[in-house]
Amino acid sequence: MRNFLLTILLCLSAYVIAGNGTQASPLTVAEAKSKSLSSTTKYWVTGYVVGEMNSYANGKWFFNVAPPFSGGVYLIADSPEEYVLTQCLCLQFPTSSNGIDFNLYDSPQYWRKKVLFQATREDYNNMAGLKKVTDFSVLTPEPLADEAQAWDFFETFEDGEFTPTDATDKWLGGEFEVREYYGKSDKIGTVVCTWKLINAIIDDGKPKWDDQCASLRNQNASLELTFDREEGIGEVEFWAGNYEDYKTAQLTFTLAVSADKGKTWKTVAADQQVAKSAKSITNGMTLYRYKVNTQGQARIRITKTDTNNGKGLQIDDIKMSRYTNTGTALDNAVFPATIKQQGQQLVIQTPVPQQLTIYNALGQTVADVLVNGEYTITLRSGAYILRTSASARKVLVK
């Protein structure tokens, strides 16, 4: 009987989880992307505001999926922490509604919040999109936490000065002093942090996102922050790409964190492969994001680990958030709740509020509730699917 029920559940799970595009059963972002293009057919869609699309120009997208934001149109995805552009949809609101309620520069509290809206499935900014957005509402319970406030570090390698250790061979490395300038009369600026470079330089090589970037050339070349972030590090995000000529050499890097002023280092991500991005789409760079979750004083180091000497690794636009208790946000690949069975009772516990829907094996809704802490339900014997906004779990009640 157990195997029979599980077989039925597996066969029906795709149907049960899928939305039908109504307000009561909205599409996910993935489901919306699969719909045929139409300027007249409207669907209800739910997802998370994960960033902004600024523009599409010269065959390249300009977008932000972490602060600071500049006021572009929303990008939404099925995971609140999504940063891969191809997993997102771009929203176009009617011109008359493009106010402070619909951009992350003026309303950063909407970042990573769940939303529900109605729209047509049409491409926008030369990518999968939704147009004629109406009935837009935020589903995340208020008060909305402004998660953007924790992201207070943004390094572009634009404002500062690189000093080589050896003037006769700048590629040996040196120091980059980041400076803040106060007014046009300030010609010197104030040093706010420094980067130590080994077998690396700061220059205007390609690929890059703006005027300058860090170029790491040989194996074990590194870029190290020599200042501690006093409030720790939550997440780190940066762009990386193959140097200048977009050759096919496979490059790798390791990200590490130190909590003792650089004496010892803990690996966050080892030997990460640098994607061979299409120059025509992303200018040869790919976005990477990692959870560091280190309390107290902390600094980072990026090290080139492949053996392709002379073939540089470019690093640009490094962003970091402070460590917070919410910095250990749930991984949406894991069901965001603890489920305990006590006979025919299910006890569901959530560390953060979660909208939970329970379906039986016939696809009928058994419960649709906001779980904030703990929720208990008694169910008949049978197979069920528990669904949150981004994941689902199968449960068999004896």
List the defining traits of the structure above:
seven-stranded antiparallel sheet; 3 domains; mainly beta; about 45% strand; disordered N terminus; about 400 residues
Topology order in helix (H) and strand (E) letters: HHEEEEEEEEEEEEEEEEHEEEEEEEEEE
Please state the oligomeric state of the protein chains shown: single chain
- Spans of at least 5 consecutive residues with low confidence: 1-16, 326-333
What number of structural domains do the residues give? 3
Query: Mean pLDDT across all residues, rounded?
Result: 84
Strand content: 35-45%
Radius of gyration: 24 Å
Q: Whole-Å distance between the termini?
A: 10 Å
Shape: globular
CATH architecture type of the largest domain: Sandwich
Secondary-structure-based class equals mainly beta
Helix percentage: under 10%
Number of helices: 3
Main β-sheet: number of strands, strand sense, barrel status? 7 strands, antiparallel
Sheet with the most strands: spatial strand order: 8-9-10-13-18-15-16
CATH topology of the largest domain: Jelly Rolls
What's the total number of strands?
A: 26
CATH class categorisation of the largest domain: Mainly Beta
